[in-house]
Amino acid sequence: MSLLVRSIAELVTNDPSLGDGSALGLVHDAALVVEDGRVAWVGDASHAPATDRVIDAEDGTVIPGFVDSHTHLVFAGDRAGEFAARMAGEPYTGGGIRTTVAATRAASDGELRANVARLRDEALRQGTTTIEVKSGYGLSTADEVRSLRVAREITAETTFLGAHVVPAEFEGRTDDYVSLVCGEMMKSALPHARWVDVFCERGAFDGDQARAILLAGMGVGLLPRIHANQLTTGPGVQLAVELGAASADHCTHLSDADIDSLAGSTTVATLLPGAEFSTRSPYPDARRLLAAGATVALASDCNPGSSYTTSMPFCVAVAVREMCMSPAEALWAATAGGARALRRPDVGYLGVGAVADLSVLDAASFVHLAYRPGVPLVRTVLLNGEPQ
Ligand SMILES: [Zn+2]
Hints:
Layout: E1 2-12, E2 26-35, E3 38-44, E4 53-64, E5 66-68, H1 80-87, H2 97-106, H3 109-125, E6 128-131, E7 133-134, H4 141-152, E8 158-163, H5 174-189, E9 195-200, H6 207-219, E10 223-224, E11 226-228, H7 236-243, E12 247-250, H8 256-263, E13 268-271, H9 273-279, H10 286-292, E14 296-298, H11 312-323, H12 327-341, E15 358-361, H13 368-371, E16 378-383, E17 386-387
The structure holds zinc ion.
Zinc ion (ZN) binds next to loops.
């Protein structure tokens, strides 16, 4: 079965060998053919081959599906009250995570599953076609495994984040909790996870603890990624680079050495501007990272405490407005950048051979993602070549 997407005013391929030769590989007056779930042909609309089915983009823009490489979708309850208090002037400390842990432990499997499905559908409607989901609100072996099982039902990109915070019952016994995470909990999580992650931050896990946890995960075959340098400068970014982590996430407080390390590595700097927006904090310095040559990704960090959004268009708009990324840099970071942060060479672009994950935008140009913030521009989403 073949499918033609025609009447594309602007096609973003993220393949610099196509179109205008920029990083976005822009093709104007374009068409795209999908066969067996993959992109089979891209080019000038006037040369498009015949196909079994047709989707008319009506002079809209087609972009690769967003790759949201950082979310915490498995949780119960919300923290709207905490958000309102913070907006009224109280600082964000991360302590509210325990509130969500209590609600998540108390929830039934069905409640967790329904919440994840609701958020996944919300993201899909806004053009997210690949999504990473972390555990981290269970913090017991049984609850972490349950969280990962629920996450696995909607994505292959599951991350074991038993080291999110130290749970209340281990107060003052962080080393005992790290031993549990590295031992029984890691072993039980393994069949359900691809990645291992740690919240390396003052008040969570220090550099030595983070190293022990990531090494334990790597020792059983999990791939490392890390929450690093969100609230303070710290050892997280250096550790990520040293261990060859796919991504260091947040990167809000970076030293010159951190920037140099990222620029000289394959570790992606994943920026999460929804977190700074929702905690009214200073944004990461994307320009410094880009100027140094680091690979930058954008992700939502969707979670009920510090960034309760599933909207990648929102993250793109904030990155452009508040972090001085160009609209092209921000879109690339939210698609190809996310794919690199998940080590996924098959998604995040629309060259021949790519998975046919894409969105048709009700817009003459991709620039409208930032130019028209808050407007639902995503008209149609294709996932593996199938309209959703
Ligand atoms: Zn996070």
